Amino acid sequence: MTWLALAFSLLIVGFGVMGLVSPPRSIGVVRAFATPGGLYFAAAVRVVMGAALYLAAPDSRAPELLRVLGVITLVVGFATPLFGLERFLRMVDWWSAKGPALIRTQGAFAVAVGFLLAWVLLP
After folding, report:
1. What is the pLDDT of residue 93?
2. Against a cut of 0.85, is the pTM above it?
3. Which of 4, 49, 77, 98 is deepest in the core (most CB within 10 A)?
């Protein structure tokens, strides 16, 4: 499971870099999930990521951190479909209306979290 969790951490870094470099493209990627199928796909990815983090925890440098992040990600994954498409669209509209500074800030945070996860997962 460590390799899967590591792949997710690098994916987080990639999305973070995209947010730093091109906020409009980030908005476009998020809007691509604004379908019922996209919402369920996002939920499934979160559930798999949460399970991967939780199961990779014993072999990591910070097992408690990964267990907590894994459980949080699992809960968010299972809750994602409960939000509904309309609420998701309102959240995306709010987020995109805040401008590129917020998106870049969140992108920088995602890069930091992704690299932290990768460091924790590597032997």
Report:
1. 95
2. yes
3. 49
Average pLDDT over residues 103-121: 97
Q: Give the Cα separation of 122 and 72 in Å (integer).
A: 21
Contacts of residue 108, defined as CB under 8 A and 6 or more positions apart, other chains included, come to 16, 19, 20
Question: What average pLDDT does this structure show over 78-104?
Answer: 95
Per-residue tokens: 11:
């994916």
- Chain centroid to Cα 11, Å, comes to 8
Distance separating alpha carbons of residues 3 and 69, to the nearest angstrom: 16
Mean pLDDT of the chain: 96
Helices 63-83 and 36-56: crossing angle in degrees, nearest 10, is 160
Contacts of 78 (CB under 8 A, 6+ apart): 43, 47
- Residue 102's CB is within 10 A of a number of other CB atoms, namely 14
